[in-house]
Amino acid sequence: MFKKIFFLPVAATLMFSCSDAPKQQNLPEGVHQIVVTQTTPATRYSVMEVSENDTKYWISTSPIEVKVGDTLYYTDALKQMNFEVKELDKVFDELYLVNDVSKTLNQQPQQDIGEMKHPNTQSGFNSDIKLSIPEGGVSIADLHTNAENYIGKKVKLIGKVVKFNEAILSTNWIHIQDGTGSESQNNFDLTLTTKDVAAVGDVIVIEGILNKDVDFGSGYKYDLIVQEATIVNKEQSKGANI
Question: Is the separation of the CB atoms in 208 and 154 below 8 Å?
Answer without folding.
Answer: yes
